[in-house]
Amino acid sequence: GSCFWVAVLDGRVVGIVAAQGHEDDNTVELRRMSVDSRYRGKGIAKALGRRVLEYAVRNNYAAVVLGTTAVKLAAHKLYESLGFCRTSQSEDYRLPGMSRSPLERFFFQIRHSRYRLQLREE
């Protein structure tokens, strides 16, 4: 129920993405998409995102979901250009390993957004 892709350009790894299937709600989670900063803006992330969508359709999943703490507007625009809709946003997200101490809460305010692309009705 999971897959991992690597984008290679001129023999160099320039991007990655993973898809993790969730049988309980028949969704695929797009995870860990990353493109080397030197190769951004060249359509690599969009191609990786499309690969996850193709995987989801081919394996008959009902939707693709993702969560992101991306602060760059370009990342959010990418997801929306692929057809995703933002379903929620949290201003009080905690990264794994954070203690939620007053000092951490003061210095680390992380916005977490959830997106969903419905492929078919269940």
TrEMBL record:
Query: Which is an annotated GO molecular function term of this record?
Result: L-aspartate N-acetyltransferase activity
GO cellular component annotations of the record:
endoplasmic reticulum membrane; mitochondrial membrane
| InterPro entries xrefs | Acyl_CoA_acyltransferase, GNAT_dom, NAT_camello-type
Report membrane topology: Single-pass membrane protein
Q: Which reaction does it catalyse?
A: L-aspartate + acetyl-CoA = N-acetyl-L-aspartate + CoA + H(+)
Chief localisation class? cytoplasm
| UniProt keyword annotation of Cell division present | no
Q: Report domain N-acetyltransferase positions.
A: 1-103
The enzyme's main class, written as a single word, is: transferase
Q: Which family does it belong to?
A: Belongs to the NAT8 family.
Q: Which PANTHER family match?
A: GNAT FAMILY N-ACETYLTRANSFERASE, N-ACETYLASPARTATE SYNTHETASE
Q: What is this protein called?
A: N-acetylaspartate synthetase
Query: What is the organism lineage in this UniProt record?
Result: Eukaryota, Metazoa, Chordata, Craniata, Vertebrata
